[in-house]
Amino acid sequence: MTTPASPFIETVAIARIASPLLKDIYENAKDGAKKALAKWNTISYSKKFEKLVKNIDEVKTIWSPGESVSLRSFYHLAKIRNKKSICPVAAISDLGAGNVVIQGIVGQGKSMLLRYLSIQEVIKKENGRLPIFLELRKLTPKINLNLAISNYFREIDINLSSEVFEYLANSGKIVLLLDGFDELDPAIAKEASLDIEHLSKKHPELQFIVSSRPDNEIQKINQFRVVEIATLSQKDQGPFLRALGVDASKSAEIMRAIKDSPSNITELINTPLMLTLVVFVYQSESNIPDELPEFFERLFHTVFTRHDGLKDCFKRQHHSGLSERRLQSLFEAFSFMAQQGGQKRTLNRSQFNECFDLALDYTDGCFCDESNFRKDITRVACLMMEEGIDDITFLHKSIAEYYSAAFIKNSDDKFAIKFYKEASKNWHYWHETLNFLSAIDSFRFSRYFAKPNLINAIEIIKPLMGTVTEVELCKKLPPFLSKATAVFEKIKGKYELTNFGPILMPPNMYLLRVANEMHELIDFSWVLTESEAQALLDGEMQISLNGDSIEVPFGCALMRWSKKSFDQYLDTLEESFLKNISLAEKTSLKMTERPKIFSKRKLSAGAIRIK
Questions:
Q1: Which residue range forms the structural domain that includes residue 512?
Q2: 3-class secondary-structure state, position 93
Q3: Which residue stretches of 37-172 are H helix?
Q4: Where is the NACHT domain (predicted)?
Q5: Is the peptide bond before 452 cis (omega within 30 degrees of 0)?
């Protein structure tokens, strides 16, 4: 296992450590590439590289919203979950060879991990590589992946011609670390996925490390292996709190409070973000709320009366002049408008102003100007951060998603019903917000979203049950599955299964599990002999032959090699959906019958009579 680097190495020292690496890359280049990289052979160039390293290493956090700090000064090693064990990740080599998707849920520290691995790669004593660290959320329809890579090199005065990139990509001396695939605008996610797939096939020596939440296009690329970040265990809490600078006695106190909390809260405190927020809330409230909604409510209060464990608690000035409650209502509406407008985590000044104006229209009693609201949110609460001249970024994507959900929860039935209807059509925009709503607005979520969408999911899979022929199944497959094929390539006289896909985004949130689990029905040990391949080509199905590869429609592959497993899967799926419908009905019924409490007890004088 690789040992972590000392967090006290200055960025200038890291730049000097990297000098031999840059010199090696330069000396092995030829012709035009060598000429373009000539600056890497100069002593003065370390200043340029120092700036690049600093941009990766220094971050703003909820602890230090006003200034950037070295992530190595507080970083706690993340761990990945393998089939048999959980292992810490201190270097890219700990992930294994090949292209990797680092998958993690909300707040697991995916971005921090990629930044940390980038720095570690630079300071390796042997076989180090130049890290190309890119935040995918900054891609736009005009700035694709290839241009973003070129811009990265332009910042260190390298003109990345095709000749230079070909040399670097094939040299094995650079590694691409792409952060936040899930933060891509859905309109460009497919293109980005294809760009990554194309580059990975064209340059097998170029390693890709991509971070993402689950259930995205990147996980479907066959050249990529998916590893999961392990959740924080109880044993991780102490070391993590020490890394944050919390003293031993306070750490013990917080860990006792977590242990004594209800299980539904304890289970949520399993990511770096949640544990950090718990520290914030606990230091202010001296307890941990029993429910998730109450926790986020306390969090909003805490960020306005924060202390860092070393200073006395103090009251911060509200620039907007709004009470805490009204400011929270305005921020909830603002978060919703940002999501509704299709914005991701970062907004430019124009987008921020537009969301603010819309939020004002939907929030009663909130009179303030945009600049003072922005100061409260970025400098007092620090739920958003100013980046550069024009950009304002949510501290974490989940902050926007929760407070957006809170806005819906606090809205009237007419608005909520309309939202759930619209979200059913565009669920991928609202996925995490809907997950929050299932907890904080369970009655309306169950009645207006869960039940109708689960019924619709059953209607979509029902026609597939009991199919007996390949032609019949292929005709009945829903569009998100119908384009998929199993690709067999001729290797040493036999056809081996090498690729499967594509599976598209399903029209229904509850069918997302189907899109993910279909891969489990495909056995990559399937092999066709020459005669079996010819029999397929001679059959009535539309089997295509392209050189030495055969593309078999997904329905045909299922019927021939996985019919029994597929039938069992559909039965289990329907049973699961029916069970969830029953739960949704119970939740809905429980809330509907609440007013009956007034008829179950004799009314006392002055009690309210419900007609």
A1: 441-611
A2: helix
A3: 46-57, 110-122, 145-154, 162-171
A4: 98-215
A5: no
In a shared domain, residues 225 and 238:
no
- What region, left, alpha or beta, does residue 581 occupy, with left being phi > 0 and alpha being psi -120 to 50 degrees? alpha
Structure token pair of residue 517 = 């689990």
Q: Which residues pair with 492 in a beta bridge?
A: none
Q: DSSP letters of 216-273?
A: SGGGG-TTEEEEEEPPPPHHHHHHHHHHHT--HHHHHHHHHHHHHS-HHHHTT--SHH
Q: Is the sign of the CA dihedral 266, 268, 269, 274 positive or negative?
A: negative
CB 388 within 8 A of CB 348: no
The half-sphere exposure of 412 on its side-chain side, counting CA atoms within 13 A, is 3
Residues 6+ apart with CB under 8 A from 25: 37, 40, 130, 168, 171, 173
Three-class secondary structure assignment of 377-412: HHHHCCCEEEECCCEEEECCHHHHHHHHHHHHHCCC
* Helix orientation angle between 413-425 and 397-409, rounded to the nearest 10 degrees: 130
Using one digit for the tens of pLDDT, what is the confidence trace for 420-454?
999 999 999 899 999 999 989 999 999 999 999 99
Kindly give the residue spans of alpha helices, DSSP state H, lying in 410-491: 413-425, 431-440, 442-445, 451-461, 470-476, 479-482
| pLDDT for 294 beyond 90 | no
Q: What is the CA radius of gyration of the chain?
A: 27
- Tell which residue, 403, 399, 398, 443, has the closest CA to residue 420: 443
Residue 519 identity: H
CA neighbor of 261 nearest in space, from 310, 308, 299, 295: 295
Structure tokens at 453: 């969408």
The answer to whether 315 and 406 are in contact (CB under 8 A) is: no
Domain count, the chain: 4
Q: Is there a single domain that holds both residue 289 and residue 162? A: no
Q: What is the pLDDT of residues 566-595, one digit of tens each?
A: 999 999 999 999 999 999 999 988 877 766
310, with CB counted inside 10 A (0-12, 13-18, 19+), is exposed
Sign of the Cα torsion 51, 54, 56, 59 reads negative
292 contacts 372 by C-beta, under 8 angstroms:
no
Residues 272 and 367 in one domain: no
Residue 19 lies in a domain: yes
Asked whether residue 309 is domain-assigned, the answer is no
Identify the band that residue 24 occupies on the pLDDT scale cut at 50, 70 and 90: confident
**Secondary structure element (H or E) that encloses residue 545, with its range:** strand 544-546
- Is residue 118 within 8 Å of 245, Cβ to Cβ? no
Residue among 422, 421, 425, 420 nearest 507 (CA): 425
**Distance (Å, whole) CA 446 – CA 467:** 32
pTM (predicted TM-score): 0.74
Distance CA 24, CA 64 (A): 38
Distances (CA, A) of 133 to 103, 185, 598: 17, 19, 62
Do 460 and 395 lie in a common domain?
Answer: no
- Mean per-residue pLDDT, 219-243: 92
Is residue 114 within 8 A of residue 102, CB to CB? The reply is: yes
SS3 86: strand
State how far the Cα of 524 lies from the Cα of 497, in Å rounded to an integer.
6
Residue 15 forms part of a structural domain: yes
Same domain, 72 and 204: yes
Q: How far apart are CA 376 and CA 317, in angstroms?
A: 8
Q: What angle do CA 523, 528, 534 make, to 5 degrees?
A: 140
Count how many Cα atoms sit within 13 Å of the Cα of residue 132 in the half-sphere of its side chain.
25
